[in-house]
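Predict structure. Chain length: 219.
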Amino acid sequence: MPTIARAKPSAFTFDASRTALIVIDMQRDFIEPGGFGEALGNDVSLLASIVPTVARLLDHARSNGWLVVHTRESHAPDLSDCPDAKRLRGAPQARIGDAGPMGRILVRGEPGNAIVDAVAPLEGERVIDKPGKGAFYATHLGEELAQRGITHLVFAGVTTEVCVQTTMREANDRGYDCVLIEDATASYIPAFKAATIEMIRSQGGIVGWTAMLDDLLEN
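Prediction complete.
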């Protein structure tokens, strides 16, 4: 079985036939100018910078026969799955459901909710629309992974400290061994990314492992 020897806090060994790549929320609303990320006052170029690395990771996963899953944080057009506690928090220039340059923000079917072209799903790859931060909440992800006998998860996407970390913690509680590819994830606040990576692999891997993409590509 392949092993990422330089993973932290220790080597990460996995069975490719039982491994899935989970790519979190690589959406136009978060990554491109004019989306929700920018409406919150963030520098979206920090997230855009990882797109080439995520594309390389996707190529590796596909060529090795991994299950590939993409997620989108998204809501129904009537916002019935977006509680006011989420929609009204803070003071962004535009809120979830409001009209933006790429359509209604974080609403399913709108142009801004799409995954950016460079890392878009291929035909047959699973896309999970999630109304929360974690990909297991209010979705069928857990059942689908179980049906396919998946035991190991490789993570990429945005943002590191919110949707990526939340999903990794959900997966850890469900018994999956997880590794986060450090240069295939990003935050609007780099210090938050760094702190999250340390949290994940602390205490002997309390949430999981981390590794760089080149470390994975050695296998």
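Summary: The mean pLDDT is 97.
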